[in-house]
Amino acid sequence: MDKVIDVPDLGVPRIVIVGGGFGGLELVRNLKKTDFQVVLLDRNNYHTFQPLLYQVATAGLEPDSISFPIRKLFHGFSNFYFRLAVVQKVDIEGSRVLTDIGELKYDHLVIASGSRTNFFGDEKIKYHCMPLKTVVQSLQLRSLLLQNFEQALQTKDLQERSALMNFVIVGGGPTGVELAGAISELKKYVLPVDYPELDVRRMEVHLVDAGDRVLNALSPKSSQSSQKYLKKLGVILHQNTFVTSYDGEVATTKKGDQDGVIYSRNLIWSAGVEGNSPKGLDASLITERGNRILVDEHSKVLGQENVYAIGDVASMKTKDYPNGHPMVAPAAMQQATQLAKNFKNEVKGKEKEPFVYKDKGSMATIGKNKAVVEVGSFKSSGPFAWFIWMFVHIMSLLGMRNKSIVFINWFWNYLNYDRSNRLITNRFSKEERKQMRDQGKAGVVI
Ligand SMILES: Cc1cc2nc3c(=O)[nH]c(=O)nc-3n(C[C@H](O)[C@H](O)[C@H](O)COP(=O)(O)OP(=O)(O)OC[C@H]3O[C@@H](n4cnc5c(N)ncnc54)[C@H](O)[C@@H]3O)c2cc1C
């Protein structure tokens, strides 16, 4: 018999949640003081605030400021248990999950395992590019950026030197746009002072997007404002353009019939994500496009009893959202709140309520004093939008300590543009990363 994860049997229904992200944690919060035993499994013992990963990657924030220990969140929750475990498979027939530390039986299973970077099957790009989905990856990107600048000092070959300093960011969504803005600010204010021997003016920041406007989830007006800000910061925009290959030194692009090349040792892949569905589910339950688990309006996996999916990994097709809800934190949290309510309703013998998503708007920042914000019919760009962006992000961080540290950091950066976290704590190597990926090590898998 397989090893069993040691959690006590409380004699009440056990809800096992896979993933302590935005959805998983919200579900736990809403199940406090209920007649359920709640067991949360996550491969990390902390929650990651993904919207600010790019600031860790560009030396603006320390990883501790955007992460929060899961156990600390649930002090005093008498029905809550956490186990550090990588879920390898779900066994629906046997009502159990299989993990690297053993198996666990459930009465209800909630899959909240989020999403992973979508490389569209291109193994070469996957090996050479830098994704940005985890804290480990953000630190790897920071190390690579600084390592390449150190290496640029050691070459007399001007093309190689430029390639070491150039950046290609693939994908014009919020992550790509925010990264392009942050790297351009490093180029303007930090790198010339740190590396006076290098001609940092030769450094190029390319943003390559397959669409005809960046931030295409926002209105054309906000896209235009963002493009204006990016250009002002010196970002080279490639629209209607695909990156077709990358070998670690040269990115090949295609725009219509035109092929192009960009020399760069730093290619960041933010061109898309797909559902991080666990193994063990029937292929008919997973969407072909997006690898998300099909659920009904109660977040129940289609045709299954007692198995649910929420957040990025779930696809609930509705009249308003025929391709599923957007893969954003509020959607995951709202779905979790509704599911918890339905669990409680079931106990009380009440009807389950269907999930209805309330769009809370979108925003992105493109460097200091520049952001775009849209909430319903309210649209704003420029410094006021930037203050809203900062306020919303600070308030969304977990814990007073993190809120305060991020606020102080941003205030300091505002005054002098300095970024104090320019440390190479672990030298980054692609080969080592591949080995870690192959071994399924936490943080590098996706
Ligand atoms: C760079 C970046 C920027 C973003 N910016 C924004 C933004 O500005 N606004 C916004 O609303 N959204 C943003 N998002 C999207 C947002 O982060 C996601 O929509 C949200 O995290 C989804 O929540 P979730 O609970 O479904 O998954 P997640 O929050 O990703 O949580 C999934 C959890 O599952 C765990 N897990 C996964 N697989 C396993 C396994 N096999 N075993 C054990 N544990 C596992 C992970 O460790 C993680 O803790 C951004 C995402 C990224 C990557």
Account of the protein in words:
It is globular, with a radius of gyration of 22 Å. The model has no long low-confidence stretch (mean pLDDT 95). It is built from twelve helices and 25 strands. Strand 24 and strand 25 (378-381) form a beta hairpin. Helices cover 32% and strands 23% of the residues. The protein starts with 13 loop residues before the first strand and ends in an 8-residue tail after the last helix. The protein is α/β, with parallel strands linked by helices. Flavin-adenine dinucleotide binds at residues 18-24, 41-44, 50-51, 53, 86-87, 112-114, 132-133, 174-175, 276, 278, 311-313, 327-330, 332.
The largest pleated sheet is described as:
5 strands, parallel
Helix content: 25-40%
Structural class: alpha/beta
Gyration radius, in Å: 22 Å
Percent strand: 15-25%
Count of DSSP E strands? 25
End-to-end CA span: 30 Å
Give the neighbour order of strands across the main sheet: 5-2-1-9-21
Small molecules bound in the structure, each named once? flavin-adenine dinucleotide
Given as residue ranges, the uncertain stretches (5+ residues, pLDDT < 50) are none
Average pLDDT reading: 95
Shape: globular
Number of helices: 12
